[in-house]
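Hi W.,

Here's what went into the run:
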Amino acid sequence: MSVLELVDVTAGYGEGADILHNVSLKLDPGEIVSIVGPNGAGKSTAMKAIFGLLVMHGGKITMGSHDITGMPPEEVVGKGVGFVPQTDNVFPNLSVEENLEMGAFTYDGPLEGRLKNVYELFPPLLEKRNQAAGTLSGGQRQMVAMGRALMLEPQVLMLDEPTAGLSPKYAQEIFELVIQVNASGTPVLMVEQNARQALAISHRGYVLVDGQNRHEGSGPELIADREVAEMFLGG
Amino acid sequence: MGDLLLFINFYLIPGIVLGSIYALGAIGVSMVFGILRFAHFAHGDMMTLGAFIAFSAIGWLGVGPILALPFAMIGTIVVTLGIDRVFYKPLREKSTIIVVIASFGVALMLRSLIMVVWGVNTETYSSGISMPLVFLDSFRIAERHIWMMAITIAAMLGIHWTLSKTRIGKAMRAVSDSPELSRLAGISTEKVVQATWIIGAGLAAIGGVFIAWDSQIHANAGWDLILPIFAAAILGGIGKAYGAMAGGMVIGIAEEVSSYPWLGDGPLLSPGYKTGIAFAIMVIMLIWRPSGLFRGRVY
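Here's what came out:
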């Protein structure tokens, strides 16, 4: 059974026109799946739909055997979905460690073990643990944001353009971290602009165009696909 | 008595006491603004409510103002949580201005309710004159002022501890930082909102009791405090609890000290214009540095 599945989702913001039209995608256990596509294709919107931030006009979203269609964000988190938004993804006035603690707000057990795991994954955060997250560099903020989501020990990690605005060196580091997180057993669903790099580390990928499924396939297949390449991989 | 002692005894200490009262109100206003994102105009009337609940506790149980404090706090907290449930919660997703106007309505209702229950007369906690404690022959301070300062300091340490050490306190700061991210991180906004009201109402009740204990209380007292309290919150920086503490203290002391005879024999500013100080500080801050001393939010 898929960990997360969207079936024929049609949705939009409030009263506005629908942005997603019959979008279907799924994430299986252990996978990294990327959603790629040109600007305005509805990639990030698809993630927000999963998080109950859109008005659904059709279709359904399931996690395992649970129907989470239209569930408010805090409950989706409670079901085990960790989400790292693209921008404003840290609490700037909270320290790094407080940011991480907030990720585990719904978890009542002791946090020491989880904090230790996150610091092992992101060693630079350990020495900055008492520093306000707002003072960190872009790449380090991304680490805080991912760490915060991982504090939940999520069933699924969703990343919205984790490398946006980062230098190629940092972007590469983030992709390596994604592989590392995935290797520890967490399925990852990400939206990426750096399509080529993202697909290279993905088991599967989806190409969305104009809010609709256009292509799907394994990462290498999509990179090799002529039409996909011409469309937006830059030839 | 030396000029300095005169200044301390009759201007600085009353200033600190007034500043404490402002700070106790301003912390709540600032936190509500930071977390619920609206200017809560019924905050002063919550202070009045606390003062009158303590008045009843003193009358019925024969306790002093300090032992009446828990009654005032619990009573005010319960009423405030009820108000939130009935009036503010249904408006949570609406635009800010609607909730602000609702809080005006709540202020009017609360004040009217207080008039119905406790009447329209000015009341005091105790009659007669209490002698101040005198130290070193000339440093005099009323016992109640010592208590008020001590309780204020304790309350502020409590706030500091809550915000920096407890999970709910950190979540309050998180929601204040970014409500959207808080939701995405799974923080229960309703729990945070309730904690905010509990802290805000508890502190408001303490402030209200202090007003009545220091002089007298009447149904309009809290409403009159709205201006200096908002000035204190703005001075400190909206959403910044420590800023509100500092802002309250600065405005309280500035108001009292402004009537000291700095030049010549008469007061520099007639005590009747005290409130003007708060207003002036608020206007200057809004023009010069709207984010406040502690870099709060700007709307």
